[in-house]
Amino acid sequence: MEEVLLKNAEEFYLSGEDNLLKKRFNAAYSDFFKALVIFCDYLIYNQIKRLPKNHVDRFILLESYFSEIYKGVSEFFKEYTFSYNSIIVEKEVIKLKKYVAEIQELVRNKKRA
User: Fold this and answer.
1) pLDDT at 113 (0 to 100)
2) What is the pLDDT of residues 38-89, one digit of tens each?
3) How many distinct structural domains can be found in the chain?
4) DSSP-assigned states of every residue in 2-31
């Protein structure tokens, strides 16, 4: 299960990078956010061997087991839902991409341990 999560997260991350290069900022933001939540699912699964059922379940589990990550993901979720009917600017995509890279590094460190 963990390898599937990592593969899917990496695919969305790479898609986000491709969309960012092509200046498709809403699509890039969506891809990076999907990568972020899948990396979070990995952390949750690694810790309690359970996958979240939906966003609400994910936020409850993040708040319980990864409170600092919960705060970050919550803020990016607001922008993610904002993107449904508005335009995301490049600097917001870059900000999310950097945060996803931080979580990705945390996942890599967990995987090594």
Assistant:
1) 63
2) 999 999 999 999 999 999 999 999 999 999 999 999 999 999 998 889 999 9
3) 1
4) HHHHHHHHHHHHHHHHHHHHTT-HHHHHHH
Residue 65 dihedral angles phi and psi, to the nearest 5°: -110, -20
Q: How far is CA 5 from CA 37, 44, 84, in A?
A: 10, 11, 25
What's the domain range around 23? 2-112
Please count the CA atoms within 13 angstroms of the CA of 23 that sit on its side-chain side: 0
What pTM, to 2 d.p., does this model score?
A: 0.94
What spatial distance separates the first Cα and last Cα of the chain, rounded to whole Å?
17
Residue percentage of the chain with pLDDT more than 90:
91
Q: What is the CATH number of the domain that holds 45?
A: 1.20.120.330
Q: 3-state SS of 83-101?
A: CCCCCCCHHHHHHHHHHHH
Q: Is the dihedral of CA 19, 11, 46, 37 positive or negative?
A: positive
Query: What value, to the nearest 5°, has the Cα angle with vertex 17 and ends 26 and 104?
Result: 105
